[in-house]
Design goal:
The chain has 127 residues and is mainly alpha-helical. The protein is 46% helix and 3% strand. The protein has a two-stranded parallel ribbon.
Amino acid sequence: MAVPQKKEAPEASVLQEKPTASAAKAGDHDRIVMASRKADGSMDQVAPEFIGDKDVAIAAAKEQLGQQAASAVDTAARGVSSAQEGAGSSEPDPDVQALKDAQDEAVAGAESQAEREVNKLHQGLGD
């Protein structure tokens, strides 16, 4: 008795022979709850789309960008302050206070950027 030969179906390919405009428009993108950041603060994802709870995404982005902005101010100012040897005082160091003020300003700007990014790119709870 002869066993019939099984015809193999052609494998479905992920690649398109002729890419369409709609495929290019949809394209790859990253669905994220919290962004990865480059050193300059920009997002390190491909066409990011925030999913999940919007308030959590905003809080995470604010914290992340705030810390990065404060660190950038600190790095830029490193070595600028002058230490006075032997001149102890109970008064706050003006250089340290100026640095703290600059960090607070950078954090506020970063937090508003974070909120704008999440508001622009949030796509709901991922349902």
